[in-house]
TrEMBL record, chain A:
GO terms for cellular component: ATP-binding cassette (ABC) transporter complex. This is Amino acid ABC transporter permease. It comes from the Bacteria. Residues 13-201 form the ABC transmembrane type-1 domain.
Length: 213, 252
């Protein structure tokens, strides 16, 4: 295996990173909306988002990607593979992150919301200044755990013809017939992406467990 | 300001009923609080006294009756609720300071967000009130670094920073270690001397004797007796009030 193959793998890794970033940013924004709707106290919103979360947590990510990729084409939306995959990952991540953050919001003591209300703070300020900073702090380890899952989950995008790291590895392996070497390297590349995040997660967890400042 | 706003009662509750499901928490409560008046609410636990003051700033909704605060009728509209909350400060049993903010940030948040006060001005006001509750030197610490008594005094300063017309105290010393009760009560007494309108749920009978204009006794969601502290403590009329006072005083 020479430089060209390695560069090809690096190119795949770049897409893996890009997909993860899209999934995380898109999923983060949509997930925040899901978490806020889930804790809004409005029965219709709460039930709708609960159903949304159950749907995406109860079906394989692979099926979700298929449905978005082929389904949107059927209804006339002609998306490029990377666009379809980005939509799929955004939906998937928003359901999981929404649920993780809902848990964080519910973990903030009731008195915090009451004090904020008593001070006449409006909804936006109550959430942005008081509740979310505390909720996101407690949710951080779980959030990072999910991000690691998401990075590995991007390998499923290869199924719809997207050349990310796993598919790039497959292609190189088929060319040079050294699967053990190639997938060993591919595995090491995934590890290099995920491990620092895991380390950061457990460091945060220790820091949060320590008595408050 | 209409004449009614300037001279009428600051808080008027008429025939207020509240249920939690089947539980009848407030039964036809009628209460008026004049400007500058200090009221102590007492009664056995579960008597509805906390519920009553939490209705005044709409932390609890009521099912029947009418509450008017500073001329504003409290319906369920966000506008009325916001307008009332701006004039009503509240201090909780469990302090409820925001743990991720410094003492100073706790005090400046609401004036900046709600009143649109500039940061420098909000900080100056906050430092003035923190000095007043004698905790100025702790302004840059986080709540967890303070004792319970100090945290509660910060909570009082935080409420004062909104320059409310009335302060509600919901058992402000019940979560404190005994040696810290006095510093909080002294702060409240100072506030009373400066003419603040106050409604306090508390079992601190010494405090009631010293500052209350009226003591109101509640049991089972209803007001059973109200009198000036001297009369109330010397000759309580209602049998429930006599039993309650007997139990409280036995412990003091």
């Amino acid at each position: 295996m020479g430089w060209p193959e390695f560069l090809f793998l690096l190119e795949g890794m770049k897409w893996t990173l890009a997909l993860s970033a899209i999934g995380f940013i898109g999923g983060g924004v949509a997930g925040l909306a899901v978490a806020l709707a889930r804790t809004s106290g409005k029965p219709v919103l709460e039930r709708a988002t609960a159903a949304y979360v159950s749907l995406f947590q109860g079906t394989p990510l692979l099926m979700q990607l298929f449905v978005v990729y082929f389904g949107l084409a059927l209804v006339g939306l002609d998306l490029a593979p990377w666009e379809a995959v980005a939509v799929g990952f955004t939906l998937h991540a928003s359901a999981y992150l929404g649920d993780i953050w809902r848990g964080g919001i519910e973990a903030v003591p009731r008195g915090q919301m009451e004090a904020a209300r008593a001070l006449s703070l409006g909804y936006v300020s109550r959430m942005k200044d008081v509740i979310l900073p505390q909720a996101l702090r407690v949710s951080l380890p779980a959030t990072i755990g999910f991000l690691v899952q998401l990075i590995k989950g991007t390998s499923l995008a290869s199924i719809v013809g997207f050349t990310e790291l796993a598919r790039a590895g497959n292609m190189v392996s088929n060319q040079i017939f050294k699967p053990l070497l190639v997938f060993g390297i591919v595995g090491a590349m995934y590890f290099a992406l995920c491990w620092p995040l895991s380390l950061y997660g457990s460091w945060m967890e220790r820091r949060l467990a320590a008595p408050s400042r | 300001m209409s004449p009614n706003q300037a001279t009428g009662p600051l808080i008027a509750m008429h025939g207020v009923d509240k249920w939690y499901g089947d539980f009848h928490a407030l039964k036809g409560v009628t209460l008026e609080v004049r400007r500058g008046e200090k009221i102590v609410l007492c009664g056995p636990s579960g008597s509805g006294k906390s519920t009553l003051i939490r209705c005044i700033n709409h932390l609890e909704t009521i099912q029947k009756g009418r509450i008017v605060v500073d001329g504003i009728a409290l319906d369920d509209s966000a506008r009325a609720v916001d307008a009332v909350r701006r004039e009503v400060g509240m201090v909780f049993q469990s302090f409820n300071l925001f743990p991720h903010m410094t003492v100073l940030e706790n005090c400046t948040l609401a004036p900046m967000r709600v009143r649109g006060t500039r940061k420098a001005e909000a900080e100056a006001t906050a430092r003035r009130y923190l000095e007043r509750v004698r905790i100025g030197e702790q302004a840059l610490k986080y709540p967890a670094q303070l004792s319970g008594g100090q945290q509660q005094r910060v909570a009082i300063a935080r409420a004062l920073c909104m320059e409310p017309k009335v302060m509600l105290f919901d058992e402000p010393t019940s979560a404190l270690d005994p040696e810290m009760v006095k510093e909080v009560l002294d702060t409240m007494i100072g506030l009373a001397r400066d003419g603040m309108t106050m409604v306090c749920v508390t079992h601190e009978m010494g405090f009631a004797r010293q500052v209350a204009d009226r003591v109101i006794f509640m049991a089972d969601g209803a007001i059973l007796e109200e009198a000036d502290p001297e009369t109330f403590f010397r000759s309580p009329q209602h049998p429930r009030a006599r039993t309650f006072l007997g139990e409280i005083l036995a412990h003091h």
